[in-house]
Amino acid sequence: xxxxxxxxxxxxxxxxxIVGAGFAGLYQLYRLRQLGMTALVVEAGDDVGGTWYxxxxxxxxxxxxxxxxxxxxxxxxxxxxxxxxxxxSQPEIERYAQHVATxxxxxxxxxxxxxxxxxxxxxxxxCWRVTTDRGDAVQGRYAVMxxxxxxxxxxxxxxxxxxxxxxxxxxxLWPRDGVDLAGKRVAIIGTGSSAVQSIPEVAKxxxxxxxxxxxxxxxxxxxxxxxxxxxxxRVRETYDQLREQERNSIAGIALGLGGALFAPPTAKILELSxxxxxxxxxxxxxxxxxxxxxxxxxxxxxxVARALYGEMVRRVVRDPETAAALTPxxxxxxxxxxxxxxxxxxxxxxxxxxxxxxxxxxxxxITPSGIQTASGSREFDVIIYATGFDAMTGxxxxxxxxxxxxxxxxxxxxxxxxxxxxxxxxxFPNLFTITGPGSPSVMSNMMVSIEQHVDWISDSLxxxxxxxxxxxxxxxxxxxxxxDHVNNVASGTMYVAESCHSWYLGENVPGKIxxxxxxxxxxxxxxxxxxxxxxxxxxxxxxxxxxxxAG
Length: 551
Ligand code: NA7
Hints:
Elements lengths: L12 E7 L3 H12 L4 E4 L8 H4 L20 H6 L9 H14 L6 E2 L4 E7 L4 E6 L4 E9 L21 E4 L14 E5 L3 H13 L2 E6 L5 E3 L7 H9 L1 H9 L26 H11 L14 H18 L3 H7 L12 E3 L2 H4 L5 E5 L5 E4 L3 E4 L2 E4 L2 E4 L8 H4 L2 E3 L6 H4 L18 E3 L12 H21 L4 E4 L1 H15 L32 H13 L5 E4 L7
Parallel strand pairs: 1-2, 1-6, 2-3, 4-17, 6-18, 7-16, 8-9, 8-16, 9-12, 10-11
Antiparallel strand pairs: 4-5, 5-6, 13-14, 14-15, 19-20
Helix pairs in contact: 1-14, 9-10, 14-16
Bound molecules: ligand NA7.
């Protein structure tokens, strides 16, 4: 595939069009080749890696152990690739994606530097017609959206944002050549995972760092470390069992943060005496708030853990006012995605690092020279926006996707995302979404969930071909039942508590319907359900021969 800026527009026809060359798109392409199908991957970036291509901000690192956040479908790949750290950094994961693309010669079927603008189902021809920002008009019998869950960056709607004359940059669109922060006055807006990872790294080089925080974050020490030969050997000896354990687990994870085999907690914090709780705090520090079974499920237990968490913050952060501002007070532990860090709270003890608590002193405007809050203005050379994503549905909704009868996906989802198994949408035949809303996706090790979806989709395509079926889509009743099931499983949990405002619920996006999007039934249970449905001849799906073949 040519990636020259002046390449001629593409107009070919393929068995499958894939959108996105992250880990989902790459594996999907590989599987389709194995099936003897033709495929084109369309990718906005100039190389592979998806999330790990775009999020190259300082400190970007995976929060799942590297030996598990890796493909399991090639023994050769598994054996030859050596991870250097317990939790891999962005550059290493990006190198891994590049290595996979080279090893399996995947780039020849990827159109880089190309963003899909529309995907319309042509009912008469039974194909998906896709256009891009480079004038391509390609078609595929099937379309697979491998567009990622955290790939539609959000820039806040702050007055004056365009007027700023200094360097402004989003963590999720960090330039490949980096940003010169050495000796600069830097501001960072946001304190989610991206900011928590960036802040200690930025503080190492900037002349000053001012953190603008709206909501304090629960974050736990990553305890990252170099991987030893012993770690590698131990995991390699039992890799197959480990992978199997991941596939049947709740979150697609078999190892804990320390790299040892992980067992879900069983002890309850409410059953400990006050002395025992204090003893646990002395021994485990911040981790004490993550190691009890009742903390994520019982609000009283959660309250106890929150008090201990606050105490830990006060122990680390010397300035009492800063410590108080950094301590979450409103939302329960566990309602948002867990953040892990290296020296986050310690960084606020540095003399050149300061915190602005936006709850007390909100941002009024971005000015040409800096940021103005209610209390006054500060000047900056660089403003970093670590302000998150339109998660799970954003990347799909930013493409003009239309199904049967021209129905827009955004219309179908106007009351929140609706689909069957997180994989297909009623009225949008032959369109698959990898790790879509309604599937475990962001609640799990993404590699495990990506592989499960790609395998399921590939097996479905082989089934359709072998049975002479040309059109597959969910029955509306099956979709309704699945959406109800996803909501029922989440109902009553911490994730949907009134005090919880998370991107899982879409609450960070103005106007987005509050709906808990991922499926929290666990990857093992979900996999079994998907397999059972396929084994029963794709129960809940309508399979039919199309009147006119694509072409
Ligand atoms: P997150 O977790 O959505 O964090 C975004 C942060 O930006 C969060 O602290 C927001 O505060 C803050 N934010 C957003 N808009 C504003 C405005 N207008 N003013 C001030 N602060 C704002 O995104 P991340 O990129 O950090 O992490 C996303 C996921 O990537 C993460 O969960 C990991 O799975 C990897 P808020 O909390 O909304 O008050």
